[in-house]
Amino acid sequence: MHKSGTYLRRTAEVLALSFLLAGCALTDDALLPSLTGESASNKSKQTAAAAPSSDSTAPSSSAPGSGPRLGTTVFEAPGVTPAQPTGTAVGQKVEELRTDLSRLQTRMAEHNDSLQGYRAAARQSATAYHNMVGEVNARLQVGTTPGNPELVAQWNGAQGELNKVGESISSLNTLSNEASSTSALAAFLLESTRATLGLRGAVEEDHRQLAVLEDEVNKTVVVIDRLLNELTEDVARAQNYFAAERSNLTAMQVAIDNGEYIGTSLASRAYGIPAAAPAGGASALVGQRQPLVVIRFNESKVEYEQALFTAVSRALDRKPNAGFDLVAVAPNVGTPAQVSLATSRSRRNAEGVLRTLTNMGLPADRITLSATSSKNAQVNEVHVYVR
């Protein structure tokens, strides 16, 4: 567990920022309070009437029992009607086509069996995954020790089950390729059956059998095409589900490290075009525009994660395609060598903030990182700007 002083400091910082955030709109020019290592006693005086942030909840998509929305159709072959040989050359061709259709339907039945098996495996793994995630969520909602080994073990188990869902997606992709080949064979068989109607030397029984065969081939083509279409939808839905849950697992990993949930993954809120680097570099931002957040590293450990998450998530709520510019700002005091060392330390701090944001689910291509020095900075700072 945290030491009491550290825990109070962190709680006070979070609530103070949440209180101030509630009273101001997040725009590109909104200035939020700095995040520093001030004492918990000073912070707690500001937060007596502050309400907890509504963002610190578990991901909603991780509800127990939910999973990829896969199809439920069972695809059955229409069958092949037996017939007596006529003894003609056309009749022999009809028998060959009937044998080909039987093989095609057997292949389609194998596709159906594989599809149902992969669906069942994906659902089973998803159920096990959500059960584990639900247990971890319950522990995180009430708070626990940072890096709790029990939760780490459950997280690893959940990741393993989700990876099994990923393996099912791979199997479904392979099956989709096989079904596409079978669909092409079915279309070729239908054309061959129709072409046989034009052969010379047939008796009326040959044409009767060909008419029945054509109907059965046509029905088989329809069933195979429906199987392929539903299989394609299954793959797309499963891939979307897998990507979303991978993002939620990343957010959960951060929560386990902290011993409580910071909030839902930022990936579910960020979309649109990637952010471009600011024109004019870092110097064009510092002192010229108001930052969304200023994190001051005036102590060896500054716990800024919850407040940063709240600020960025609310900015994304207002502007989902926003980009974020991180600027490492070092004090411009002392010799050139001292300024260079301070700039290097400040950049490492900014790299840590960048990793925190990506762990929260914000795509890395939405963030730029730069460094500068300023005579107005007293300690190393990281400024976060919205674009």
Outline of the structure:
By secondary structure, the protein is α/β, with parallel strands linked by helices. It has helices at residues 4-22, 40-44, 89-142, 149-196, 204-258, 305-318, 336-359; strands at 34-35, 293-296, 324-331, 367-374, 381-386. It has two domains: 4-56 and 266-386, no CATH class; 62-258.
Describe the structure.
The protein is of the alpha/beta class and 387 residues long. The chain folds into two domains: 4-56 and 266-386, no CATH class; 62-258. It has seven helices and five strands. It has helices spanning 4-22, 40-44, 89-142, 149-196, 204-258, 305-318, 336-359, and strands spanning 34-35, 293-296, 324-331, 367-374, 381-386. The longest helix has 55 residues, at 204-258. Mean pLDDT is 79; it is low at 1-34, 38-57 and 60-65.
List the helices and strands and how they pair.
Elements: H1 4-22, E1 34-35, H2 40-44, H3 89-142, H4 149-196, H5 204-258, E2 293-296, H6 305-318, E3 324-331, H7 336-359, E4 367-374, E5 381-386
Parallel strand pairs: 1-2, 3-4
Antiparallel strand pairs: 2-5, 3-5
Helix pairs in contact: 1-6, 3-4, 3-5, 4-5
Which regions contain 5 or more consecutive residues with pLDDT less than 50? 1-34, 38-57, 60-65
Global Rg: 31 Å
Mean pLDDT: 79
The portion of residues forming beta strands comes to: 5-15%
Instruction: Give me the side-by-side strand order of the main sheet.
Output: 1-2-5-3-4
Number of strands: 5
End-to-end C-alpha gap: 38 Å
Order of helices and strands: HEHHHHEHEHEE
Total count of domains? 2
Name the overall outline: elongated
- The total of helices stands at 7
Share in helix: 55-70%
Describe the sheet with the most strands.
5 strands, mixed
Structural class: alpha/beta
